[in-house]
Structure formats: structure tokens, C-alpha cells
Amino acid sequence: MSNDTTSRQSWWQRIAHPGQFVAWTTPLLMPLAILTAVLFVVGLWFAFFNSPEDYQMGDTVRIMYVHVPNAWLSQFVYAVITVSALGTLVWRHPLADVSMKAAVPLGALFTALALFTGALWGRPTWGTFWEWDGRMTSTLVLLFIYLGIIALWRAFDDQLRAARVVAVFTLVGAINIPIIKFSVDWWSTLHQPASVFVPGGPRMPLSIQIPLFLMFFAFTFLFLVLHLKAMHTEIKRRRVMTLQRKLAQRATP
Amino acid sequence: MSPFMAMLRRELRLALRGGGDVLILVLFFMIVGAIVPFAVGPDQTLLASIAPGIIWIATFLAMLLGLERLFRPDHEDGSLILLRQAELPLSAVIAAKLIVHWLVSAVPLLLASPILALLLAIDVPAFGRTLVSLALGTPALAAFSAIGAAVTVPIRHGGLIAPILIAPLSVPVLIFGVSAITSPQSGAATLFLAALSVMAVALTPFVAAFAIGSAED
Fold this sequence. Notes:
The complex is a heterodimer of chains A (253) and B (217). Chain A has helices at 11-14, 18-49, 64-91, 96-126, 134-155, 159-191, 206-251. By secondary structure, chain A is mainly α. Chain A has one domain. The longest helix of chain A has 46 residues, at 206-251. Chain A starts with 10 loop residues before the first helix and ends with a helix. By secondary structure, chain B is an all-alpha fold. Chain B has one domain (3-216). Chain B is elongated, with a radius of gyration of 18 Å. The two termini of chain B are 31 Å apart. The interface between A and B is medium-sized, with 29 and 28 residues.
């Protein structure tokens, strides 16, 4: 911890202290949670009752309002982890690895949910739970990368050392994900060019766009709330571990 | 002798005098390839059509088997710490290790692949393409192995984690490797494969050195 106690600190330095960070962000937690809940209620109401059925897919089109935000988060969370990894390695920000560790399981969860909802949607519309389509395959590989990062993290005893090593691997993954995406697209269009499902993005009517964007923000805020809370938990867990270590030291003179 | 050459010689000696390592890799490669017909049936045309995939999977698994020897022994006897403090930068040390790793774990597989091709009923032109794609793709696999090994070297039982980390990264290598043999666009796939290998081999020494360095301090 740097010993600058000057009065003019930027917010960046202020939140570098874990205790300060918890103190500063705890008041944010409740309003953000309420905002998330409101967004979910309104978004789900629109999604269920105030959006049209698709003329081909019928009611199953409503899965989209859950599926698309999860798919977006699966990539957004990796971006968050990558920035945190840079924070760990480049700026050595004390909270970057806490942020990284808190975000990885969330990213894995959103990716798994995107795949799961996609499978549920695929069954009635394509007639299959799984298709080796480019986008699905690269999402699956992304899930494997998330799970690999979790496994790597759990294998270490020393958390600070783990953070740096995981950060290096995260950056390798960040370089590789576009390559994987590209190669998988190239591979799957090679095998089955016609079956790729294209939901004409910008051609969507407003009645579908409104619930989609609402759900999109609801899930993004859900991630922010959970991420913040998981960071607090991780900080407290580390404090408990330090206290236990001190206790053990005192017990054995 | 320059330090880099000395490092190459040291690694090569360690690898070749270590006993049956190379033999075990080749044996594993052959057995994985030869066990597939028992699972899918002895149909020659089916085997010939999936043979490129089988050979690539066997290569991939065999190379994963050998990645422990990259840094683990040096980490355990402490020479990795000495190498970090040497005049030669750690990235150059890792480049030497990478070259030797490719020589002792990929080249034997290339040499053994004709037998597997024979067993799996590949015709001669397709086998030529298989050799080219293996030769171009294995450097990338070796490089990813080095990254996986470097990241897991501080973990006491890191043996199983490294393959889990490496497998998703190797997806493009497998795609382009198999496409270079079978697809109508094999020329483009071969070029992509070569590009991947060049990029991976060029960046890996620095990434692996950075990973080892940041784990130790």
C-alpha cells in the first residue's frame, strides 16, 4: 500500500484501499439492486405481455429476451476480466485481482446460461438442442476458457501469486478469443453454410427492441450488483484469512 | 559457444538422455491412433475420411503428455531460479526449451505418422498434406504447451490443469490443421496454420517468461 496521505487523492487512489473501497461502494449497492429489480420487472412485463409473437417462432421468441443479454454478458465479462488483468499486471492496483476473481465465476455463469437458453430456444425452432454453428461453438470454447481460469485459480494456495499468473493467462485468452471466433466461423460456414440462423438485427420492430434493451440493461446491472457484492465478499474473505493467520501465529509462539 | 547454443545443447541432452520419453510419446501416439478403428469399426472408407482428424487428435494428446518436462524438472531442482538470474534473458531460455520441445515431441510423431497413415488407409496425396499440416501446426501446439506449462509451474500438482487450459486455445490449430488436409480450401487453411504457428512461436517465449517471472516474485 502506498503511503500517500495527501488530501488531494483521486478516486482511483482512494478506492485502492480495500476498506475504503468497501466503505465507498456499499451505499451504491442498494440503489443499484433496486434499479436492477425495477428493470427486471418492467423488462419481463414487456417481454411476456407487451411484445408480439413472432410469426414463425410463436411464443418461443420470448426466450430471446433472456438469451441475448446473457450472450452479451458472456463477452462483456471477459472484457472486464481483461481490464482487471491489465490492472493487476500493469498498474498493480490492489483491487484489480479482487475484481478479476469476483468476475470470473459470474462470466462462466452467464456464458452457461447463454448456452442453456440457446439450447432451449434451438429445440423448438431448429429442432435440435445443439448445432455446431460458429457462434454457439465459440461460446462453448469461451465457457471452457472461463472454467479453465477458475480451475487455475483454485489450484493455487497463494492468492496474490495466483492473481498475477491468472492475469497472464487471461490476457493470452483475450488475444486468442478473436482468433478462435474467426477460425470457428470459418470452420462452420465451411460445413453448413445455409443453416446459420440470422435474426435480422436492425430490422427488428420497436415492440421487440424495447423489451430487449430493457432486459439487456437489467442483466448488465445484475452483473454490476453481483460483481460489486462478490468483490466485497472476497475482500472480507481475505481479511478473515489474514486474521486466522495472525491467530495461528499467536497460538504457536 | 554462445549461451543460447549452450542452452539448446543442455536441453537436448536432458531430453535424449532422460530415457524412454520419446519412445513413450511415439507409442502413445500410435496407440491412440490405432485404438480408434476398434471404436468406430474397420470400415476402410470411413476410416480414410476421419483419418486426418484421428491423426491430429493423437498428435494433440501426445504433445499434451510431454509438456510436464518443459519446466517442471527445472523448477523442482531449482535450476529455473538460476536460469532467471542468468545473463541470457529468460525469454531466450524459453525459446531454446521450445525448440527442443518441438524437436523431441513433434518430430518423432511426424516420423511415426506414415505407419499410422497406413493403418488408417490414407492415400498418398492426402498423406503428403497430412505431413505438411502436422509440420506447420505442431509448433503452435508446442508453443501453447509452453504457455500452459509456464502458468502451472508453481502449482504442485499442475499436471491436469495445463491440458484443460491449453485445449480451448488449440481449437484454431485443430480446425486449420484438419482443414489443411481435407477441405477444398486447404491452401488457405495451410496458410492460416502457418500464420498461427509463427505468431504463437514468436510471442510464447515472452509470455511464458512473463508468467514464470510474475509467479516467482
